[in-house]
Write a structure and sequence with these properties.
The chain is an alpha+beta fold. It has one domain. It is about 35% helix and about 25% strand. Strands 1, 2, 3, 4 and 5 form a 5-stranded antiparallel sheet that branches. A hairpin with a 4-residue loop joins β2 and β3. The longest helix is centred in the middle third of the chain and has 16 residues. It starts with a strand and ends with a helix.
């Protein structure tokens, strides 16, 4: 992927207690329409999540994050949403919702290497 690429990214968050609106960043979605690219990286800090809510069902959180990753990657086994074109999947994944797993509003940027910026943002905003 040579040249300059316009991209959008959103931070994936877990909101352990919805009415408190506190969240923990657990991943990154990075999207480039022209390159038909979605990069996704996730990592759970289980101890931190448990500090927010000791009875949080981590298995359910893991399952939901896996489904999100499969949809982002276009895994056909993940259902109808995963079979949508890349831009429609990104818009669906970043739609505003009031669930335990949410994303930030998308932010834009320009880069030469989409994989590298996905990793950099993941390191800066999640790890």
């Amino acid at each position: 992927m040579q040249g300059r690429h316009l991209y959008e990214y959103a931070v994936i968050r877990v909101v352990p207690v919805l009415d408190r609106e506190e969240f923990i960043n657990v991943g990154i979605l990075l999207f480039s329409k022209r390159q038909r690219y979605i990069g996704v990286r996730t990592a759970l800090n289980e101890a931190r999540l448990k500090a927010f809510r000791s009875d949080l069902d981590l298995e359910q959180v893991r399952a939901n994050l896996l489904a999100l990753e499969q949809i982002a990657r276009g895994d056909q086994a993940a259902g109808a949403i995963a079979r949508l074109p890349v831009e429609e999947r990104f818009r669906w994944l970043t739609a505003v919702r009031s669930t335990a797993i949410q994303t930030s509003r998308p932010h834009a940027g320009i880069c030469a290497d989409l994989e590298a910026v996905t990793e950099r943002l993941f390191g800066e905003l999640v790890l």
